[in-house]
Amino acid sequence: MNLTRLVYYSQRNPSESLDIEALIETCQRNNGRMNVSGLLHYNGDHFLQVLEGGRVEVSALYHRIARDTRHSNIILMGCYDVRERMFPRWSMGLHQGMDAQTREIYMRYFATDDVNPETVNVESLLDVLQDLSVELT
After folding, report:
1. Is 94 helix (H, G, I), strand (E, B) or coil?
2. Which element (helix H / strand E) includes 74?
3. Strand, helix or coil at 47?
4. What is the set of domains in the chain, with CATH numbers?
5. Less Cβ crowding at N or C end of the chain, within 10 Å?
6. For a pLDDT cut of 70, what percent of the chain falls above it?
7. First to last CA, the chain
8. For the segment 78-107, what is each residue's pLDDT rounded down to a tens digit?
C-alpha cells in the first residue's frame, strides 16, 4: 500500500451550522477504521487539513470533504506519496483558533497570519501544521 499525504485549504461556509467537536469525533471514528491520520487547523473562518493514509482511502475522503456543504472555495494544495506519516498519533488531531502563539507560528513562515492559499507553498503549510501539533501533545 502506498502512503499518501494530501493537504487542502478551504473556507467555512457561514450559512451551514458547524459543531467542530462533533465533526472531529466523527472524523476520528471514521478515519480510524480507514487507517487515515492527520491534523485539522480551524481558525473559525478557514480549514487547513492534512490527511495521510492509503491512496484510495485518502482520495475517497477528500472527495467526500469536497462535497461537504460546510466547506466552500476548497483548494487542493498538494497530494503525493510519502515514506512515513507526519501525524501518526491522531486519526484526526484538531488545533483551533488564532491566539498569540498561533499567530507567532504563522509569522515564522509567512508575511502575515492571513494565509492566502494561492501564494504559499505546501511545505510551509506542513511546517505550520507540525508546529501547531506540538501544542496538542
Report:
1. strand
2. strand 71-82
3. strand
4. 3-134 (3.30.70.100)
5. C
6. 99
7. 28
8. 999 999 999 998 888 889 988 899 999 989
